Amino acid sequence: MHEILRRTAEHVRQQQSADCTGHDWWHTDRVRRTALALAAAEGADPLVVELAALLHDIADWKFHDGDTAAGPRAARAWLVAQQVEPAIIEHVCRIVGSLSFRGAGVPTPMDSLEGGCVQDADRLDALGAIGVARAFAYGAVRGQPLYDPEAPPAPHGSFAEYRRGGSSTINHFHEKLLLLADRMNTATGRALAAGRHAFLERFLAEFQREWEGTDLPPAP
Ligand code: ADP
Ligand code: NI
User: Fold this and answer.
1) Which residue's CA is the nearest one to ligand 1's atom 7?
2) Does ligand 1 have an atom closer than 6 angstroms to the CB of 165?
3) Which of 65, 72, 163, 167 could form a disulfide with 97 if both were Cys (CB 3.0 to 4.6 A apart)?
């Protein structure tokens, strides 16, 4: 394995070992593996993809007072200290800075195939069974209710609105998670997202059924 990849993985693993919001080392490791599989299928540069996947959550804006420059700044400091080639540093930092979801009405386009693979991989980890688990873990840390039947979901038109949060975790499915399958960059990512999206739909239908008690026996 490329020495820089080994050192970067070790660095990130140390930084993310204590996280319990779903942005932990194992999330990064899954994103790295998924992103590399997408890169192989799509013909993207595996070194840029793996470095960007490893560094993508190194300083997320959600945990840095909304500062979207914190991630690329931390990634750059690390890569410069490792004497990585400047063109690779630029590319990786551009990806890290533009990856994150910022609200239903806020476009976050990726301008390279490598960025598309990493963004797709990160989004795939927000879908499916792991996506459900991560959403409730994040919601608990933020003190959100599981669900509030009196608070309808609000598709956010701006990053500022999205950042304010304050919704339930079930609302987050409607405000973000169910929108992701239509926003994939690569054909391989889109195919994987379809299956994981279908699982979210099944989970929500069952949640609603149990919440409303439609599975209970009829009253005598
Ligand atoms: P991105 O990688 O696009 O920045 P996030 O960091 O927002 O994605 O999402 C990471 C994980 O945290 C996802 O699994 C997502 O569902 C969860 N998450 C983010 N915001 C919320 C929220 N308000 N409620 C519940 N889960 C959330
Ligand atoms: Ni992530």
Assistant:
1) 101
2) yes
3) 72
170 lines ligand 1 (CB under 6 A): no
Answer for the pair 111, 72: CB distance below 8 angstroms, yes or no: no
Alpha carbon distance 88, 47 (integer Å) = 9
Contact 22, 138 (CB under 8 A): yes
- pLDDT digits 0-9 by tens, 111-129: 999 999 999 999 999 999 9
Is 135 a pocket residue for ligand 1 (Cβ < 6 Å)?
yes
- Ligand 1 pocket, 91 CB below 6 A? no
CA 156 to CA 98: how far, in whole Å?
18
Q: Is the pTM of this model over 0.90?
A: yes
Between the CA of residue 171 and those of 126, 148, 159, what are the distances in Å? 14, 8, 17
Closest C-alpha to ligand 1, atom 17: 135
Sign of CA dihedral 121, 122, 125, 126: negative
Q: How many CA atoms are closer than 13 Å to the CA of 70, on its beta-carbon side? A: 13
